[in-house]
Amino acid sequence: MLEKMRNKRLSYAQYMELALYDEQYGYYMRKKEKIGREGDFITTSNVGHIIGHVFADVFVRLIETYHVPPLICEIGGGTGRFAYAVLEQWKRQSSKTFSQGQYIMIEASPYHREKQAETLAPFIDYVRIISSFAELSDSFSGIVFSNELFDAFPVHVIEKREGHIYECFIEVENDQLVEKCVPLENEQIAQYIVERNIQLVDGQRFEIPLAMKKFIFQLNQVIDKAIIFTVDYGYTDEEWKHPARKRGSLRGYYRHQLIDNALRYPGEMDLTTHIQWDALRFYGEQAGWTYTHLWRQDEFLLQAGILNHLMAHHDPNPFSEQQRHNRAIRSLVMSDIARAFHVMVQQKNMNIPIFT
Fold first, then answer.
1. Which PANTHER family does the record cross-reference, listed alphabetically (predicted)?
2. Could you report the per-residue pLDDT of 4-14, keeping only the tens digit for each?
């Protein structure tokens, strides 16, 4: 990967695009386990099937009660475990709408498309796996879902020094990746700072999610009527002002270790940033989406009825299926990681209550 970067100056967004999505070097494109014990990180949707079952409860109610079209589109579905859990619960809970419905997976990674096809084989007649929006033949109406999608999008990195804004770039020197910051010239970044009214203090670094902004408008082009669920970790504009976040949030995950230096292990580790919730809301509204609410994930799951999934049991064995199932539910509503995640709901050409 260093050879591909040699004699070039890349923005952080270009570096992340190369390190994560390049067909030859990209981390997400490699045929290796990335999620779970054998990978580099764990997602909340990878913790058993419970979270998929709870979201399925919500999706089915929207379909049955408010006549939302029985189409679910998941973007960036990893191994397909969340989709399997949703389909399993959907079929069990509402066989009629299930038989009329379809679950569409949009996944850029060939490796993950293969994994999804394997995982979802029992539901193959109700699943469609595609690589991009371009393969959606008609305007989509239904439910759009993503989990930890935007946190892996490439971002530009800026820093304020002595009253001036700099953009940080990456170069190869002596076979090492080094950072160089130069006065900001990118007009799209400058526009983002103005339209989002970003105020930085000296010494503060900040990520500029131009890819997320672009994605919102691209998604808007292919949806007609939709309820859009976004699950991720991030901060509001007010939370970004906290001194603890002065150095930004770009990090790596390598074999379940948090790596502060995003330039280590290029192409071999996951790169992630905390998303800007107010930016998602702002550009969604520019696209014509109505903001519904932002919940902490544990609050969302409780309102969605996750406690109804607890299993009654009298087995003292702590490793029994029922005990493990109930522990997983507790972890989804009581752990620190559960409280770090949020769920944002937006709607296009719909005005439906998520909870009643």
1. PROTEIN ARGININE METHYLTRANSFERASE NDUFAF7, MITOCHONDRIAL
2. 777 789 999 99
Q: Where are the alpha helices (DSSP H) in 196-291?
A: 210-222, 237-240, 277-286
CA distances from 20 to 13, 144, 219, 228 (A): 10, 23, 21, 25
Listed as ranges, residues in the chain with pLDDT below 70 are 1-3, 31-48, 312-320
Q: Taking the CB of residue 96, how many other CB atoms lie within 10 A of it?
A: 10
CA distance 148 to 220: 19
Contact present, 76 and 149 (Cβ < 8 Å): yes
What's at 310, amino acid-wise? Answer: L
Supply the DSSP string of 49-96, one letter for each residue.
THHHHHHHHHHHHHHHHH---SEEEEES-TTSHHHHHHHHHHHHH-HH
In single-letter form, the type of residue at position 16 comes to M
Helix (H, G, I), strand (E, B) or coil at 18: helix
